[in-house]
Design a protein that fits this description.
The chain is an all-beta fold. The chain has a single domain, classed as Porin, CATH 2.40.160. 3% of the residues lie in helices and 56% in strands. It contains one helix and 18 strands. The longest helix has 10 residues. It starts with 7 loop residues before the first helix and ends with a strand.
Length: 337
């Protein structure tokens, strides 16, 4: 699910240009709203026995777990009830010596009423407790995925969703669940293989969300094996200030692509401006492959309603790997509008 970073000059310019924006969606007219965010981070990863690798808005230096930590996203929502259209783009300057916009969302939703919707186009996977978007994360780095990468990103197809006051269910038929092109699009064909996704969620207990889902890629094209991933997570708002969560993900994609991830998570808001995330996570590859346990703390401070800064420190303990331990730290700024 890794995307591309961008250089400091481009990100800083975008940030300064948008500081006057509000946190809520900007209404352009009665039918169109505009929203988005800008995110940028300094990250450093140091494995025992190796030089440190750091990244200041630089796509040429991938950081384990760093994921989508540098990002500018713009989204337009077109409301023509009962149809809603969504188009979003990311800008990745100076990636591979060139600059480009990447189209993320490009879909239409038909509201059939009584909680039933039908969506067609290019959209994000159902899977994963941690958000694809850095602005919606509680920390800088992802919990897992350094070896296994079990959570898909974007793909194209059709999905049907139903939700009422206590439950929801969805099913998607897509060009591929996973992709050889990274997290921003599927493989773009149905001739060789296809993907399926589905989920069920229950919210009938106050402050509790239970979620279970799957994704499946058929063998063919870039997939040498059928791939099945199962994802289970729960989130509980224990008090006004404390949110707890846990997740377990298993993936079976054949030899060298099989294992599981897990997360134990807590976020405590000590004030309206200050919150801190505590996370313990792990990943293990099957057949004697590498595994790790990761310990994370990440305080965040909201400078304004739409501008915040977070700082993370994570410590890795590895097994069956070339290093025994590693550290990650970073500082990230998030601007929402």
């Amino acid at each position: 699910m890794t995307k591309y970073s961008f250089r400091f000059a481009g990100w800083a310019g975008a940030l300064l240009a948008l500081t006057a924006a509000s946190q809520a969606d900007v209404k352009l007219n009665d039918n169109i709203t505009f929203s988005g965010y800008a995110a940028g981070a300094y990250m450093n990863y140091k494995a025992d026995g190796a030089p440190s690798v750091d990244s200041l808005f630089d796509a040429s230096k991938p950081i384990p777990g760093g994921g989508d930590s540098n990002d500018v996203l713009t989204k337009f929502t077109l409301n023509f009830k009962p149809v809603t259209g969504v188009i979003s783009m990311n800008y990745f300057p100076n990636v591979g010596g060139s600059s480009e916009f990447t189209l993320l969302d490009a879909y239409a939703v038909y509201d059939a009423g009584d909680g039933l919707t039908v969506t067609a186009g290019k959209f994000l996977s159902y899977m994963g407790y941690e958000s694809f978007y850095p602005a919606n994360m509680d920390q800088i780095s992802y919990a897992d995925g350094d070896f296994l990468a079990p959570i898909p990103g974007y793909h194209s197809g059709v999905k049907v969703d139903y939700a009422d006051k206590i439950q929801g269910v969805g099913f998607a038929f897509v060009d591929s669940a996973y992709s050889p092109y990274g997290g921003t699009r599927g493989d773009g064909e149905l001739k060789h293989n296809a993907g399926l996704e589905g989920y069920y969620t229950y919210t009938g207990v106050s402050n509790l969300t239970l979620w279970a889902g799957f994704c499946y890629d058929t063998k063919g094209g870039f997939q040498p094996h059928n791939v099945l991933t199962l994802d289970f997570w729960a989130s509980y708002q224990a008090t006004k200030d404390l949110r707890l969560a846990a997740e377990y993900v298993s993936k079976d994609g054949g030899t060298g692509n099989k294992g599981y991830n897990w997360i134990a998570f807590a976020n405590y808001a000590s004030s309206d401006k200050v919150s801190t995330t505590f996370r313990v996570s792990g990943e293990e590859m099957s057949n004697g492959g590498p595994k790790f346990t990761k310990y994370t703390i990440c305080p965040q401070y909201a400078l304004t309603a739409n501008l915040s800064v977070r700082a993370e420190y994570s410590y890795y303990e590895y097994s069956n790997y070339w290093t025994k331990n590693a550290t990650f730290y970073g500082v990230q700024t998030i601007l929402k509008w």
